[in-house]
Amino acid sequence: MNVIAGKIFLGLAFLLSPLVWSGLAAGEIHIERIFGPEVKTGPYKHPARMTQFQNGDFYLVYYGGEGEYANDTAVFGSRLKKGESQWSPPRVIAKDPFRSLGNGVIWQSPDGLVWLFYVVRFGETWSSSRVQAKVSRDNAETWSDAFPLHLEEGMMVCNKPIVLNNGNYLLPLYRETGADKEKTGADCTGLFLRFDVKKQQWSETGRIRSVTGNIQPAVAQLTDDHLVAYCRRGGDYEPTTNGYLVRAESHDGGQTWSEGKNCQFPNPNAAVDFLKLNNGHLLLIYNDSMNDRTPLTAAISTDNDKTYPHRRNIAIGDFDYAYPIATQAQDGKIHVIYTSHGRTVINCAVFDEAWVFESRQPTK
C-alpha cells in the first residue's frame, strides 16, 4: 500500500485528465499514473522527462527496454494534446542499430525548436557514454537526424536546460567515471553546455568538482551573474550517515563554478531537480533520505536559496520514487514527473505552491 501526499491509495492505477489538473483548487495535489508495465516498450521506463510545448501539448520521453543495461534500448516519446485526456502510445524517437541508449531530455527553446538530448552507451557501463541530440521544428511530430553534442567519454545528460537572462541556454551535463555499475568515481563532475543563440553554437563551461564526485546537476539563475546548482552525490549505494546533495555556485553567469560542497539536504545517491518558479521562488525536488529513494519531497525557498522552511512529501511508502523533473505549466501549476515500482511506472504529481505552504509536516 502506498501513502502519497498524506492520502492512502491502493496502488497507482488512477488517471487524471488535464481538465482535473486545470480544476485543482489551491492547496490540492493530484497524482497521475501515466504508464506502467502494461505499455509494451519493455518493463524498464526510466528516467522520464516531460515538458509543455508552446501550443499547450505536454510531451514525455523515457528510455525503455528490458533493463538499465539491456543491449536493445531506445528513447520513446508520448504526447498529451491540449484539452485531451489520453496520452498517445509511446513510439520510438531515437534508436541506434549498434548501441544502447540511455537518459533522454525533451525541451522546447523560446524560438519554438524542440530539442531531444540523449545518451548513447558505447561499452558495458555509463562511463563509456556520449551525448547526442535531435531537433524538431513541428512540435515533435518529426525529427532531424541524430548529431553528436559532446564526444568526451563518460558524458551524459539528465536534466533540462534553462534560458539565461541574456537569452542564451544552459544545458546541464555530467561526466561519469569509474566503469562500475554500482558506484561512480570520485572524479565525476557536473558541467554545462552554453548555447549562444546568435552564433547558434554550443560551448562548454567550467566543471563542478567535489570530494566524492557529483553528477546530474540541476541549475537555477538567481541574478545575471549568480547561479546555483544542486547535484547528486557520487559514490555507491551502501548505507551511510554522510550522504548529502552537492551544492555549487557561479558568480560569472555560469562560466565557472565553485567547488561543490555538501549541503543541508540528504541524498541517497539519487537524482534531484531545481526550478525557479515564475514568481522567483525556488523549488527543490529531492529524496529526503540518505539511503532510500523515499520519500520524494518538495521544498520551496522564498529568499533566494537561503532557507527552505516550506517542505512537503509528494510520495512516501515502500516503493522507490525517483528521478524527478519539475515543470511549471502555462496555467502556473507545478508538474513533477517521477518513476516508481522498480522503474516500471511513470507518475505525474500536479500541485501549486499553496499545497507545499500548507504542509503541517515538521521541517528541518
Structure description:
This protein has helices at residues 18-22, 353-357; strands spanning 2-4, 7-9, 29-35, 44-52, 58-65, 74-80, 91-94, 100-108, 114-121, 129-136, 147-150, 155-157, 162-163, 169-175, 189-196, 201-204, 214-221, 227-233, 244-250, 261-266, 273-276, 282-287, 296-301, 310-315, 321-328, 334-340, 345-351. With 364 residues, it is mainly β. The chain has a domain at 1-35 and 270-364. A hairpin with an 8-residue loop joins β23 and β24 (310-315). It starts with a strand and ends in a 7-residue tail after the last helix.
Topology (SSEs and partners):
Blueprint (H helix, E strand, L loop, with lengths): L1 E3 L2 E3 L8 H5 L6 E7 L8 E9 L5 E8 L8 E7 L10 E4 L5 E9 L5 E8 L7 E8 L10 E4 L4 E3 L4 E2 L5 E7 L13 E8 L4 E4 L9 E8 L5 E7 L10 E7 L10 E6 L6 E4 L5 E6 L8 E6 L8 E6 L5 E8 L5 E7 L4 E7 L1 H5 L7
Antiparallel strand pairs: 1-2, 3-27, 4-5, 5-6, 6-7, 8-9, 9-10, 10-11, 12-14, 13-14, 14-15, 15-16, 17-18, 18-19, 19-20, 21-22, 22-23, 23-24, 25-26, 26-27
What sequence of helices (H) and strands (E) makes up the elements? EEHEEEEEEEEEEEEEEEEEEEEEEEEEH
Largest sheet: 5 strands, antiparallel
Unreliably modeled segments: 1-17
| Mean pLDDT reading | 92
How widely separated are the two ends?
27 Å
Class by helix and strand content?
mainly beta
Count of individual beta strands? 27
Task: Give descriptors for this structure.
single chain, 364 residues, mainly beta, 5-stranded antiparallel β-sheet, 4-stranded antiparallel β-sheet, 2 helices, 27 strands, 3% helix
Concise synopsis of the structure shown:
With 364 residues, the protein is an all-beta fold. The protein contains two helices and 27 strands.
